[in-house]
Design a protein that fits this description.
By secondary structure, the chain is α/β, with parallel strands linked by helices. Helix content is 41%, strand content 16%. It has one domain: Alpha-Beta Barrel (TIM Barrel), CATH 3.20.20.390. Bound molecules: SN-glycerol-1-phosphate.
């Protein structure tokens, strides 16, 4: 297993401390080899978890090949670190977590799956349908399922449109808190506040603060449209446990350039 710590992936995501950084990799946007190079560069820069998934479920999508390529690359780096007493082997304890658009975007090679409901979708398929379809497959694969409420905010981007979401407006604090409380009461362990990949308006800081205060026991993940370390810092200071970046990492083909950009991003996020 690429993820070799003694505890579960949920435990890794629950460990408190500084806000952590997650990179999301869309297997439909790059080859498995490129995905693996980008994953390694971001881990060196400080990323502590990798989500693999996108907002379209395409038959034959290279999800599995992407997970395997990333896993093999991490294992190689871990082995190299184990041969060098100056290297920190633990930095390679980075779980690969499926973040699927549907029951077909799965891989038994992943360390875990965000078992999520798009809570504010109008389409029952995204609220419970894909979950029922995927459950026997995930059970058979034996990968850790982490229950997660996924809530999409305006502007919503592609996931808001494809997921047929009743978008929560950026000033609707009461609405956001109600979703967060429902997530807690339904037994979800994490809540993901999503503004949509590539949007020009990340989730509002006051929304994050209110959700943080309402459900301190849930792992709070925030993503969508945070292109700068300063934007990530605002979300971190508002109480996000994890900040997710996707698009930005796909803009760099050169691994060392990506590593430098993400190192600065993560440093600023934590200031
Ligand atoms: C997608 O929230 C993430 O689920 C990432 O968004 O691509 O805008 O970084 P970006």
């Amino acid at each position: 297993m690429a993820y070799e710590v003694a505890h579960s992936v949920l435990h890794h995501l629950q460990s408190k401390g500084n806000t952590g950084h997650i990179v999301v990799i869309d297997p439909d946007d790059q080859t498995p080899e490129v995905a693996a190079k980008r994953a390694i560069a971001t881990i060196i820069a400080g990323t502590r978890a990798i989500l693999v998934g996108g907002s379209t479920a395409i038959d034959g999508s290279p999800v599995h090949d992407t997970v395997v390529a990333i896993k093999e690359a991490i294992e190689l780096c871990r082995w190299n670190a184990s041969q060098d007493s100056d290297s920190d082997e633990d930095m390679w304890d980075v779980p690969i977590i499926l973040f699927p658009a549907g029951a077909r975007a799965l891989s038994p090679a992943a360390d875990a799956i965000t078992y999520m409901s798009l809570m504010n979708s109008r389409n029952l398929q995204f609220v419970m349908g894909e979950q029922v379809l995927g459950a026997p497959i995930v059970e058979k694969m034996g990968i850790e399922a982490i229950p997660m409420g996924y809530v999409v905010f305006a502007p919503g981007g592609k996931v808001g449109a494809v997921g047929e979401a009743n978008l929560i407006e950026s000033d609707d604090i009461e609405g956001a808190v109600a979703y967060a409380l429902a997530a807690k009461m339904l037994g979800f362990k994490m809540i993901y506040l999503e503004a949509g990949s590539g949007v020009n308006q990340p989730v509002d800081s006051q929304i994050i603060q209110a959700v943080r205060a309402a459900v301190p026991e849930l792992v709070l993940i925030v993503g969508g449209g945070m292109r700068t370390g300063e934007q990530a810092q605002a979300s971190a200071r508002s109480g996000a446990d994890w900040i997710v970046t996707g698009n930005l990492t796909e803009e760099y083909d050169d691994a060392s350039e990506l590593e430098n950009v993400m190192r600065k991003y993560i440093q600023t996020m934590r200031e």
